[in-house]
């Protein structure tokens, strides 16, 4: 009896083993088994990795689409990621265009300030300097500089008055220039004063220690504006009856010609 039970138990065990073997073989041949799911997962991972690399390096989505069609549904989402990469390229392009537009923007230059209307040169808008000369002998140079902000005109010739003089010296007619002397701010005009005759033909003469210079207007009929009071050397200057002046000149050389 005992031997019979043992035999039956072994037979049942063998039958169970055969059934399990058959089931295992069937599972291996079926595409829905656990082993196939693992393979599908491995294939999807490989496909997704392959999709990310071409999309990032070349920006092409054509080859990525082909690879994805062979993979699983989850890998198809990689195509969307590749599309995002293309979208990023568009954003960068737009940013570059905006930077280019900013670089091309320039500021319009400012217009220069106007000097306004012209005025007559006189003591309040000029500075006058008197300098005795060695050549020509017995001559003095008057230099008038425009210290104002507007262009001024030096009309005619200087009306000079030395110490205790009763009248102004006459002008040398031949020295009249072809145009009125025009001084922009900072520019200078010139006139020469022949103080005395070198041969003594002007009389005994005297020493003058002060000088006043008046300015003519356009009509030359009278003095205008303020007078100038240029300093003379401490020892004064010698003048006689031959004293005379030149017209205002645009250059120093022209003034010293007479």
Report what the structure shows.
- The termini are far apart.
- Strands 1, 4, 5, 8 and 9 form a 5-stranded mixed β-sheet that branches. A 4-stranded antiparallel β-sheet has the order 2-3-6-11. Strands 7-10 form a two-stranded antiparallel ribbon.
- With 258 residues, it is of the alpha+beta class.
- It has helices spanning 2-29, 34-58, 62-70, 73-103, 252-255; strands spanning 119-120, 126-133, 139-146, 152-162, 181-183, 188-194, 206-208, 211-216, 223-228, 237-239, 244-245.
- The protein folds into 2 domains: 2-89, no CATH class; 119-255.
- Helix 2 (34-58) packs parallel to helix 4.
- A hairpin with a 6-residue loop joins strand 8 and strand 9 (223-228).
- It is built from 5 helices and 11 strands; from the N terminus they run H-H-H-H-E-E-E-E-E-E-E-E-E-E-E-H.
Features:
23% strand; five-stranded mixed beta sheet; four-stranded antiparallel beta sheet; alpha+beta
Q: State Rg.
A: 56 Å
Provide the number of structural domains.
Answer: 2
- Gross morphology is elongated
What structural class is derived from the secondary structure elements?
A: alpha+beta
| Terminus-to-terminus distance | 167 Å
Mean pLDDT: 72
Outline the fold blueprint:
Blueprint: H1 2-29, H2 34-58, H3 62-70, H4 73-103, E1 119-120, E2 126-133, E3 139-146, E4 152-162, E5 181-183, E6 188-194, E7 206-208, E8 211-216, E9 223-228, E10 237-239, E11 244-245, H5 252-255
State the gist of this model:
The protein has helices spanning 2-29, 34-58, 62-70, 73-103, 252-255; strands spanning 119-120, 126-133, 139-146, 152-162, 181-183, 188-194, 206-208, 211-216, 223-228, 237-239, 244-245.
């Amino acid at each position: 009896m005992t031997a019979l039970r043992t035999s039956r138990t072994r037979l049942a065990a063998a039958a169970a083993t055969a059934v399990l073997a058959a089931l295992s073989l069937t599972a291996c041949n079926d595409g829905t088994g656990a082993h196939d799911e693992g393979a599908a997962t491995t294939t999807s991972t490989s496909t997704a990795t392959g999709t990310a690399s071409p999309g990032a390096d070349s920006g092409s989505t054509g080859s990525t689409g082909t690879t994805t069609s062979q993979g699983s549904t989850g890998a198809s989402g990689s195509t969307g990621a590749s599309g995002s990469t293309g979208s990023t390229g568009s954003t960068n392009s737009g940013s570059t265009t905006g930077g280019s537009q900013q670089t091309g923007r320039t500021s319009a230059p400012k217009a220069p300030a106007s000097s306004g209307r012209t005025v007559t040169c006189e003591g309040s808008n000029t500075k006058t300097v008197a300098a005795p000369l060695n050549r020509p002998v017995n001559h003095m140079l008057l230099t008038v500089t425009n210290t104002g902000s507007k262009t001024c005109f030096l009309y005619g010739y200087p009306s000079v008055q030395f110490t205790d003089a009763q009248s102004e010296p006459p002008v040398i007619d031949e020295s009249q220039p072809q145009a009125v002397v025009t001084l922009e701010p900072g520019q200078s005009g010139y006139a020469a004063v022949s103080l005395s005759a070198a041969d003594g033909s002007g009389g005994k003469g005297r020493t003058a220690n002060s000088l006043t210079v008046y300015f003519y207007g356009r009509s030359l009929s009278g003095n205008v504006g303020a007078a100038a009071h240029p300093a003379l050397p401490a020892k004064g200057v010698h003048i006689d009856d031959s004293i005379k002046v030149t017209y205002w000149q645009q250059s120093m050389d022209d003034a010293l010609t007479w």
